[in-house]
């Protein structure tokens, strides 16, 4: 069955498991399946509001939960 995008400035979504994305809103108080909602803005804060683009990600762990950064042993960097 074919599914089409609706509206102007189409929004794309894909999910690994059915029901993992919230319906009707981007940032619910509790995301489905215990996921954490994070927004990544892809435009400058000086851009007009109608030109703003963003990506919503629903993660198992928040990106702030990353461990400490450690130096990488490489002569290429």
UniProtKB/TrEMBL annotation:
Gene Ontology annotations for the cellular component aspect, listed alphabetically: cytoplasm
InterPro entries according to UniProt: HgmA_N, Homogentis_dOase, RmlC_Cupin_sf
Domain Homogentisate 1,2-dioxygenase N-terminal: 3-73
Metabolic or biological pathway, per its Swiss-Prot or TrEMBL entry: Amino-acid degradation; L-phenylalanine degradation; acetoacetate and fumarate from L-phenylalanine: step 4/6
GO terms, molecular function: homogentisate 1,2-dioxygenase activity; metal ion binding
This protein's UniProt keywords: Dioxygenase, Iron, Metal-binding, Oxidoreductase
EC class (word): oxidoreductase
Record EC number: 1.13.11.5
Keyword Lipid biosynthesis among record annotations: no
Pfam short name (any one): HgmA_N
GO biological process: L-phenylalanine catabolic process; tyrosine metabolic process
Signal peptide location: none
Protein name in the entry: Homogentisate 1,2-dioxygenase
Native organism: Capitella teleta (Polychaete worm)
